[in-house]
Amino acid sequence: MSAKGPNTGEERWPKDRLVPHSRRVRDEHLAAVLRGEEFLLLDGAMGTQLQARGLAAGELPELLCLTNPAEIREVHASYVSAGAEVVTTNTFGANAAKLGDTASVAEVFSAAVACACEAGARYVAADLGPTGQLLEPMGPLPFDDAYGLFAEQVRAADAAGADLFVIETMADLAEAKAALLAVRENSDLPAFVTMTFGEDGRTFLGTTPEAAAVTLSSLGADVVGINCGLGPAAVAPLVKRMLPWASCPVMAQANAGLPHVVDGVTTYDVGPEEYAEAVAGMLDAGVTVIGGCCGTTPQHIAREHELLAGRVPAERHVRDSFAVSSAQEICSLDYGQVGVIGERINPTGKRLMKEALRSGDHDYVMNMAIEQGRAGAQILDVNAGLPEIDERAVMCQLVSELQGVSTLPLQIDAADPAVIEAAVRSYPGKALINSTNGKAQTMADVLPIVKHYGCAVVGLTLDEDGIPATAEGRLSIARKIVRECEQLDIPRHDVVIDCLTMAASTDQTQPRAILDAIRLVKQELPGVRTVLGVSNISFGLPFRPLVNGTFLAAAFSAGLDLAIINPCLTRMMDVVDSWRVLSGEDESAQYFVANYAGRGDRAPAPVSAGEKAAALSAGASAAPAVAPGEPADAAARACELVLAGRKGPMPEVVSQVIAEHDPMYAINEVLIPALDVVGERFEKGIFFLPQLMASAEAAKAGFETIKAAVDASGQGANVPEKGSIVVCTVHGDIHDIGKNIVRMLLENYGYNVIDLGRDVPPQVVADAVVKDHVRLCGLSALMTATVPAMAETIELLRKEAPWCKVVVGGAVLNPEYAKMVGADFYAKDATETARIAVEVLG
Amino acid sequence: MVESYDIGSIDRSEVLRYMGYAGQSMTAELEGRIDGCMKRCLSVGGPRGVWRIFDVEGTGTKEDGTPCVRLAGTSLELLGTSMQKHMEGAVAVGVMAVTVGMGVERELRRLSLTDRVGQVVFDAAATTLVERTADACEASIVAAGHERGLFANFRFSPGYGDMPMATQPVLLQALDAQRQLGITLTDTLLMVPTKSVTAVVGLFETIQPSTHASCAGCPCFDFCTIRPTGHTCRG
């Protein structure tokens, strides 16, 4: 563990932020509501009412709190008369980004809360809508910036006298999380959070109701639910999907149907009666907080008010399943079900993974994630623990990038609490933290993070005295961990005990002790789950996969819930899949029959990750390396493959070339000449873009094979380094296709490409160039609006890295523009960039 | 005014055109990859649009001399010489925003990290799909104009001509496009999902030279609701 504690480093939040504190709840009725014992009625639409009163489309309605408070008060008062207990302030878009210089956030909230109070509201809910910008990684807004916008609103609303917060109309779980954390860390008032779903049962960003409920209720939302988007009949089934997964009350504020235009006026077609009927169904299912969204009127609210009279909240059954979640999907395990955690994203003992993390080239990691998902992993372990890298930065980057390629929930695997906290803070979901253990200090460091960010946690059965040799010793540490968790209100189903695998070859009493420990933990600590990394068991033995498989089966039988394995090893997944038949989890053995019928008993060969990745991502499936009519000579075949853009057979054919000649021959006499032909064909219009790229891709596969062969033979010095080039899309621009094409080609020509990605601030570019004294930097911009950012970047480079030449390209650029922004070169396309690289770097 | 469009196919020749295709001979492998991307784009895409029609309140110039078309009931103003020309004589303006959704955006992101050939092909397919979506939305505006006895010209987007990109925030706000479609803006005024289109269509009392000249070549043909009634948008 690093010497850095969780509270050192960048101090952006109050120091005691991880200390759980109680809520400031206005009165006993609201307290009962938060316990789910009483109903609460919110108000209906504000925007629709304002439009009916003549608000022009496109104006910021929030400003009316300042310019026409009487109007706002009247709308609020009409809902209060209708029976609404909560009035939601007219502050949906009142954040610093949207208000700009029209008004300050504090002014708007102060006026808005005053309007609500003066209207006679029993409770004033400060309304927080989306920032209007999309968060990273899909959009440009950093999580911390979104948090900052919300925090400013929260402080303003709290100071103005609000009683609670309603975070609403969220489409992005990361943004909802930023808003909720902003409330938790800047106020002690209750927070209600609702997200908006479409007809497909997902938010615009793909979140399911289950994922929203699991993530937000774990994170400490006082009420979670659904608003806007759909009419009440369509919201009902979605809110019912939330109910079993939310450990807090659930709310619904549907639209009055879908908007359509009649005689130029936007109208909604679900009247109060029909609306109330659908709401009644939701109340029967267990919803306790209601109100309305777009298109609802005081009449709708009045009808809901009648609905609540004399009614008591329906009984709810919240599941106690183990559940973690990504932004899209949950992974849940009921008692008796088993799950698979993919262990491959971990550099320990893996040369290629180490190299990928060191060089910052994450393609390898991303493919590993995809491959494990395909093989059956349900959760992905992510470990970036290498002494020579900035673990915190790399972990955060991986967590962010993995969201782009996989919808599986993540297990954040780190020893340093600062790394864990940085990773789970902005993770848009409920992560599994790996790990805490029985040491007092570790629990004090890690468990508050688990609680504050609503995560699940792995508890290792070791403490200050090491790993106990007996099952009872392990149980007693498990007890200690569970007790600590319970003191922090971390529920048992979020605690996963790892009884720690020891090698059978060194102590043959261990396998039984581990299995007994699993059994004991499940028996003595009901509700708690267990996890195990199994492969250590076979250390020092021959035929390890067989031993691992046997041990895994025994562990499942002892009650193991989650196995940390390499799912790409067929034998391990065979055990998992067959166990699911024996345990009854795979009902009627449907999955097993569908996937295993016709499988023989041939011992499956472990497939190497690289091979499988290559096979899986090869465009056309297993086409033979030698097609009829192709030359039989390996060198000629490799050349043909590059020209045809077929990467699948490249490793095999290039290996043959190396065997027949040597690595340098493969580079200088085969791949480079082939690429020259490709470039020429592209110039002449014989090839078009995808062909150029497919050829580059095939050549890349060839270079990788050569590199692996050279590495293996220990003659690294024989492949000359041609120099590094930094490439990126400039700040403010999110288009990266052109940059990616350039990168592919430059890599082909043997350059070490440092790809900084898209939307990259000038300073980040300058730092990267300075760090490795890079002599060529490629900047891309697609939009006119981002050309100034390009000029700014070049200016900074001139100051901080005067030795570095700059080449620019992109749709809006031309030679004149390039000169104007101060670039050394303009490249009209990727092949031109490659020529410039040769000119500058040789 | 919020609509989902049933778009069952992507025009392959358009996709190829976006990639600079000029009749080169392709391997079966590349052809397969292109077809795969088009199929995937249709399956993850959710073509949706929102539109409204605003009456023209007047035209004039801003303080700095920029020509300006003012619309009734919205703070949206259409600025620039090219806009003034496009809307010359218009009595109403159809304002539209369409997107193929976050699913496509996520797939582009995934490909950007894992398969750069796929990214180029998929991007071309997604561009084709969003333009098709814009055709569908434009057809709705043309039909709504037709109901009022008005003739449409064609869609014109911010960023083209001298219509400023700064129009984007107000235009999207006027359509409530973030809430209805999930379209967000970067502070450099780029839309995310990137495969989104905003545009305005002029509606006139008389037939325009720029009114779709014939049904055969009309991009809105497949989505036209006027033709089945035995009429055309030309009368």
TrEMBL record, chain A:
Biological pathway: Amino-acid biosynthesis; L-methionine biosynthesis via de novo pathway; L-methionine from L-homocysteine (MetH route): step 1/1
Cofactor requirement: methylcob(III)alamin; Zn(2+)
SMART domains from the UniProt entry: B12-binding_2
InterPro entries assigned: Cbl-bd_cap, Cobalamin-bd, Cobalamin-bd_sf, Dihydropteroate_synth-like_sf, HCY_dom, HCY_dom_sf, Met_Synthase/Corrinoid, MetH_bac
The Pterin-binding domain, residue ranges: 338-583
Chain residues that bind Zn(2+): C228, C293, C294
Record-annotated B12-binding N-terminal domain positions: 625-718
Gene3D superfamilies: Cobalamin-binding domain, Dihydropteroate synthase-like, Homocysteine-binding-like domain, Methionine synthase domain
Similarity section: Belongs to the vitamin-B12 dependent methionine synthase family.
Reported function: Catalyzes the transfer of a methyl group from methyl-cobalamin to homocysteine, yielding enzyme-bound cob(I)alamin and methionine. Subsequently, remethylates the cofactor using methyltetrahydrofolate.
Protein name (database record): Methionine synthase
Organism: Tractidigestivibacter montrealensis
TrEMBL record, chain B:
Domain AdoMet activation stretches: 92-201
The name this protein goes by in its record: AdoMet activation domain-containing protein
Gene3D superfamilies in the record: 3.40.109.40
One Pfam family from the record: Met_synt_B12
Species classification: Bacteria, Bacillati, Actinomycetota, Coriobacteriia, Coriobacteriales
